């Protein structure tokens, strides 16, 4: 029998009726999209459990951490260094921003033609549906786009706990100096908030924890290069999404256990798809839980998603942190250097991202690239032009998609993806 968390949800101020409705919808969607898949790895049982308890047991764990004196830091972006949060004995958690929730309320504060991710994090709070937001002691934003930058001002008025890190939009000497200073200021803010001093020993310990998580995700990505893939793109996406919510040490152990199983599946020729099935790389905007729409369409049409060139994907774990430091100041230097290898579309120029799309396409043996942008996500919508030129140059089919979190365009997208897969198949057969 499922545990009743109603009292806990009530104590943190959730809208119980709305929250029950949200969980019902998500449970049904999860059953239809995920649990209906055939021949899934046994190791996915853990990640199914995490999702079933994402607003239950995980919230209870965070609740208990707060009772023990730990501070909870909520984030939206991979530029926020998790290592620093762990170094002050904090809990780092990704915040709700992946569903069409509370849009009517959000649109009282932001324009209707605002990207779905921004409306979602406002909507989840305004509708009283995100327990993570309610448990945070600090919410860390970052200036990766103008929409977020201004929305954080509004979000701070609503929550009174937003801290913004200013990200440079060029990676020259001045930009690197500025970002290093921002990370130092964030470290100071965390020490002030928690009362805990960051020491070289604590920072090195936390760096090893986060690097171990990145290595597990790198391992998962490498296994997806097998033909046929031992895991669906949907399941791999879910694991990447869970990495922002779960306890990092437990997550790493469970992901490595799954990777052990996937390696055995490759040896045995066991797969979620037939050998020779079409292989698709998805590139672009991040996909927060429960944004599974595009993967569900692609794989429901018979292809396999073999990689995500995304912040909820390789952009998050591609580069490890250099652990060769002996002081906090050196550690902050290393954190700054590593995070600026992340090729967000907010940067200009952004040739690294184009190079990484090509590298991933070749390494994962993708036969087509779908460029995904959230509607009104200007940086990724604009970069689609150069991404297409780059992919065209290596002779791989390219499809550009702009959508939001709603299900209204499912039919249209299914038709477009189906036609794209037919074009890919023709190319493969030629």
Report a brief summary of the structure.
This protein is α/β, with parallel strands linked by helices and 430 residues long.
Overall average residue pLDDT: 96
Q: What is the count of DSSP helices, taking H or I runs of 4+ residues?
A: 19
Task: Determine the structural class based on helices, strands and strand pairing.
Answer: alpha/beta
Indicate the radius of gyration in whole angstroms.
Answer: 21 Å
First and last CA, distance: 55 Å
Major sheet: arrangement of strands: 2-1-3-4
User: Total number of β-strand segments?
Assistant: 8
Describe this structure in words.
It is a single chain. This protein has helices spanning 6-11, 16-35, 44-52, 57-67, 82-87, 103-106, 116-126, 131-135, 146-159, 173-194, 200-223, 233-242, 248-268, 293-300, 314-317, 328-339, 351-363, 378-393, 410-429, and strands spanning 72-75, 91-94, 138-142, 162-165, 279-284, 304-309, 368-374, 398-403. The protein is α/β, with parallel strands linked by helices and 430 residues long. The longest helix has 24 residues, at 200-223. The chain starts with 5 loop residues before the first helix and ends with a helix.
How would you describe this structure in keywords?
430 residues, alpha/beta, four-stranded parallel sheet, 10% strand, globular
Secondary-structure topology with pairs:
Elements: H1 6-11, H2 16-35, H3 44-52, H4 57-67, E1 72-75, H5 82-87, E2 91-94, H6 103-106, H7 116-126, H8 131-135, E3 138-142, H9 146-159, E4 162-165, H10 173-194, H11 200-223, H12 233-242, H13 248-268, E5 279-284, H14 293-300, E6 304-309, H15 314-317, H16 328-339, H17 351-363, E7 368-374, H18 378-393, E8 398-403, H19 410-429
Parallel strand pairs: 1-2, 1-3, 3-4, 5-6, 5-7, 7-8
Helix pairs in contact: 3-12, 10-16, 11-13, 14-19, 17-18
């Amino acid at each position: 029998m499922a545990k009743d968390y109603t009292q806990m949800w009530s104590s943190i101020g959730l809208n119980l009726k709305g929250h029950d409705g949200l969980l019902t919808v998500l449970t049904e969607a999860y059953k239809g999209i995920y649990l209906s898949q055939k021949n899934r790895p046994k190791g996915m049982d853990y990640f199914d459990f995490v999702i079933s308890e994402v607003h239950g047991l995980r919230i209870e764990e965070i609740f208990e951490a707060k009772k023990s004196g730990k501070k909870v830091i909520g984030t939206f972006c991979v530029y926020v260094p998790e290592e620093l949060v762990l170094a002050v004995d904090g809990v780092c958690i990704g915040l709700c921003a992946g569903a069409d929730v509370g849009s009517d309320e959000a649109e009282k504060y932001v324009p209707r033609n605002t990207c779905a991710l921004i409306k979602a994090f406002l909507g989840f709070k305004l509708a009283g549906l995100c327990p993570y937001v309610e448990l945070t002691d600090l919410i860390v934003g970052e200036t990766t786009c103008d929409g977020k930058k201004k929305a954080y001002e509004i979000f701070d008025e609503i929550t009174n706990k937003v801290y913004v890190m200013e990200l440079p939009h060029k990676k020259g000497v001045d930009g690197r100096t500025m970002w290093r200073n921002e990370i130092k200021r964030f470290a100071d803010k965390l020490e002030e908030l928690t009362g805990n001093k960051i020491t070289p020993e604590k920072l090195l310990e936390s760096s090893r924890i986060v690097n171990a998580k990145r290595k597990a995700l790198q391992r998962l990505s490498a296994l997806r290069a097998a033909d046929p893939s031992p895991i669906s793109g949907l399941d791999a996406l879910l694991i990447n999404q869970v990495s922002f919510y779960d306890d990092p040490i437990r997550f790493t152990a469970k992901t490595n256990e799954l990777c052990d199983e996937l390696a055995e599946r490759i040896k045995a020729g066991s797969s979620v798809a037939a050998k020779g099935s079409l292989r698709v790389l998805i590139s672009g905007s991040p996909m927060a839980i429960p944004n599974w729409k595009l993967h569900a369409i692609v794989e429901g049409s018979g292809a396999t998603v073999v990689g995500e060139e995304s912040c909820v994907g390789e952009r998050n774990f591609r580069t490890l942190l250099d652990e060769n430091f002996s002081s906090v100041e050196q550690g902050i230097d290393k954190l700054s250097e590593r995070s600026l290898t992340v090729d967000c579309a907010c940067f200009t120029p952004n040739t690294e991202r184009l190079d990484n799309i090509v590298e991933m396409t070749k390494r994962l043996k993708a036969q087509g690239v779908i460029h995904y942008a959230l509607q009104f996500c200007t940086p990724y919508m604009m970069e689609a032009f150069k991404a297409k030129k780059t992919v065209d140059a290596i002779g791989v089919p390219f499809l550009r998609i702009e959508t939001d979190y709603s299900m209204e365009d499912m039919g249209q997208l299914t038709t477009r993806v189906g036609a794209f897969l037919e074009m890919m198949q023709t190319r493969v057969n030629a």
